[in-house]
Design a protein that fits this description.
This protein is an alpha+beta fold and 251 residues long. It has 4 helices and 13 strands. The longest helix is centred in the first third of the chain and has 29 residues.
Length: 251
């Protein structure tokens, strides 16, 4: 770094880079959407990158020291808006120490609109997304030992007869394809278009969404600690769940 550079120019350079990066992403998305539309007659479908049981996404009864509740499929509302060949499963897991997480898996069929970013539907369910960024979770089952996920810190208002209070949740998600992982929506679209154009193949993506509540605290410092505790809980769960989501060898 040049010590004589004018510090006042730094924000301008940063903004220019951000605008250029944003423009590049928009351009990539625009081109891939057009190309996907032009290749709507693809004849091949890839194998899914997750484990299936009887053709449906799988979530285990037990995940390490977590015990799963009843497994639910797609809700009636989801079935109304998603393509008919979309498959899904949802399960709530509890641990003896009181920890609780909810896990959902949605698997696309032939239609690329089966999978979408959670950011599009969560606000409609009353969630206010306060912060979103990519993080890594230590997961020995992943090559390199780290799984990159997208994290969203969100709140909504819980109303009772006596009061109304904010409730915080951390959502994490990532997309899974055949031998592919990404937390980025734009990258999933790019790979999808690449497969359709170059390989005449529709990539059958799944996305995994996991959520855990953040205990409410009175101070900002205490709230940060609560969020860190929730991320550790989610990381522990993912490390134990991930190996069970992979397709069985030879199956």
């Amino acid at each position: 770094m040049n010590p004589s550079a004018n510090p006042a120019s730094t924000p301008t350079v940063t903004r220019m880079l951000s605008v250029r990066q944003l423009a590049s992403i928009v351009a990539i998305l625009g081109v891939t959407i057009v190309l996907t539309a032009l290749t709507s007659d693809v004849t091949k479908v890839s194998e899914p990158g997750i484990r299936l049981v009887n053709g449906q996404p799988y979530l285990p009864d037990i995940v390490g020291d977590w015990v799963g509740g009843a497994a639910d499929g797609l809700s009636d509302a989801e079935k109304q808006v998603l393509p008919a060949d979309t498959a899904g499963i949802r399960r709530r897991y509890r641990r003896a120490d009181g920890g609780e997480v909810t896990c959902s898996v949605v698997l696309a069929g032939r239609d690329v609109t089966s999978i979408h970013r959670p950011e599009l539907c969560l606000p409609g369910q009353g969630w206010n997304i306060q912060r979103e960024h990519a993080e890594t979770i230590r997961t020995p089952a992943v090559e390199g030992g780290e799984l990159k996920i997208m994290r969203m810190d969100a709140v909504h208002t819980v109303t009772t007869a006596a009061s109304a209070r904010p409730a915080g949740v951390i959502f994490i998600y990532w997309f899974v394809g055949k031998d592919r992982l990404t937390p980025y929506h734009w990258q999933r679209i790019f790979w999808t278009t690449q497969d359709r154009v170059l390989r005449n193949c529709n990539h059958r993506w799944a996305y995994i969404l996991i959520a855990a509540s953040v205990r409410p605290e009175q101070t900002a410092e205490a709230q940060e600690r609560a969020q860190a505790d929730t991320m550790r809980l989610l990381g522990s769960f993912v490390a134990q769940l991930y190996p069970q989501l992979r397709p069985l060898q030879g199956g």
